[in-house]
Automatic annotation (TrEMBL):
<keyword id="KW-0862">Zinc</keyword>
<dbReference type="GO" id="GO:0046872">
    <property type="term" value="F:metal ion binding"/>
</dbReference>
<dbReference type="GO" id="GO:0016787">
    <property type="term" value="F:hydrolase activity"/>
</dbReference>
<comment type="similarity">
    <text>Belongs to the metallo-beta-lactamase superfamily.</text>
</comment>
<keyword id="KW-0378">Hydrolase</keyword>
<dbReference type="Pfam" id="PF00753">
    <property type="entry name" value="Lactamase_B"/>
</dbReference>
<feature type="region of interest" description="Disordered">
    <location>
        <begin position="298"/>
        <end position="324"/>
    </location>
</feature>
<keyword id="KW-0479">Metal-binding</keyword>
<protein>
    <submittedName>
        <fullName>Glyoxylase-like metal-dependent hydrolase (Beta-lactamase superfamily II)</fullName>
    </submittedName>
</protein>
<dbReference type="InterPro" id="IPR051013">
    <property type="entry name" value="MBL_superfamily_lactonases"/>
</dbReference>
<dbReference type="InterPro" id="IPR036866">
    <property type="entry name" value="RibonucZ/Hydroxyglut_hydro"/>
</dbReference>
<feature type="domain" description="Metallo-beta-lactamase">
    <location>
        <begin position="80"/>
        <end position="298"/>
    </location>
</feature>
<dbReference type="InterPro" id="IPR001279">
    <property type="entry name" value="Metallo-B-lactamas"/>
</dbReference>
Length: 324
């Protein structure tokens, strides 16, 4: 039986609605002092490379102001529930297995009613196992590594019983503590599953304060993106075409990172566990974009660049460098 999921109060819903309207007219400004205070610790020294492939997924257009606060052009951006396959010489793993079969009944039905309309994917959305079958050239994953434990990053595991999951210890404690799951947390996906916990026990990397070198060779380095959830991480990947950072939901679209614009209050107030920490992390991503290609999980425009060929960017996209 599923654990109940926390529902926002009437006050929280009203606050989110009011904040949405206010943010359309007066979006939160970037913190210039914070930007000046952030230091860049540089990149790891990798000994090997990995390939990263975005699995096929059905996008949907969403109003830009709901994703990028106070932004109206373009009118819409594309959003998708994308999963990624990373191939390392020692293992192949699945990042953000976000969609199970019959997702409406098995996952979305557990969410608070106020969130269901905002997060419901298109009917044609591929379950993660279907997306894997659509890319038969990819090796089968040895384990899954979600950027965080929200339903749309782990519920695909429901169709993969027995597949081990690697999860930040802070994140696992957050999503499993108490009888009621946090907003967005669907615990069934992680229950009774082999789990390898890790800590961000490594030094600062780029603009991020903590890290964890997954294979010890500098090719897959997990970095601290806390805020959206307490244990959110990004995956810094050394590919033959350069560095790629899979950023989970620290941002929903690269336009947030470019402009340092937070998510709109609805649904951002419910999606982000700590809005202040999420905004600070956005500043760190903004500065890192000069060095690495940042791919938010739900940003279809960004992730499609990793689906051109098996694990490789096209020449045009490789030549495109992050803007100022």
């Amino acid at each position: 039986m599923s654990d109940p999921v926390k529902a926002p109060s009437v006050f929280e819903c009203c606050s989110a609605a009011a904040g949405f309207v206010y943010g359309m007219a007066r979006p939160r400004r970037r913190d210039e002092r914070l930007l000046r205070s952030i230091t860049d610790a540089g990149l790891p020294t990798p000994r090997r490379t990995v390939t990263v492939t975005a699995l096929p997924q059905v996008p949907r257009p969403v109003p830009t102001p709901a994703i990028v606060e106070g932004t109206f052009a373009p009118r819409r951006v594309t959003n998708a529930m994308t999963s990624f396959v990373v191939e390392h010489p020692e293992a192949t793993f699945l990042v953000d297995p976000g969609v199970c079969a019959d997702v409406e009944r098995r996952a979305i039905a557990q969410l608070p009613a106020v969130l269901r309309a905002a997060v419901r994917p298109p009917e044609a959305t591929l379950a993660t196992v279907e997306a894997l079958r659509a890319a038969p050239e990819l090796p089968s994953p040895d384990f899954a590594l979600p950027t965080h434990a929200h339903w749309d990053h782990v519920c695909g595991l429901l169709d993969m019983p027995g597949l081990p999951v690697h999860l930040h210890r802070t994140e696992r404690q957050w999503v499993t503590a108490g009888p009621i799951a946090p907003v967005g947390g669907v615990r069934d996906s992680l229950r009774d599953r082999p789990t390898v916990e890790y800590e961000l026990d490594g030094p600062p990397v780029l603009t991020f304060t903590r890290s964890h070198d997954l294979f010890g060779d500098g090719t897959v380095v997990l970095v601290d993106l806390a805020g959206h959830t307490p244990g959110s991480v990004g995956l810094l990947l050394h590919t033959r075409q350069g560095w790629v950072l899979l950023a989970g939901d620290a941002a929903w679209h690269h336009r947030q990172i470019d402009a340092v614009r937070q998510k709109a209050s609805y649904p951002g107030n419910f999606a982000d566990a700590d809005r202040e920490a999420t905004f600070r992390t956005l500043h760190r991503l903004h500065l890192a974009r000069h060095t690495v290609r940042i791919v938010p999980t739900h940003d279809h425009d960004a992730s499609s660049r990793l689906a051109v060929t098996h694990g490789q960017l096209s020449d045009t996209e490789t030549a495109e460098q992050p803007g100022p």
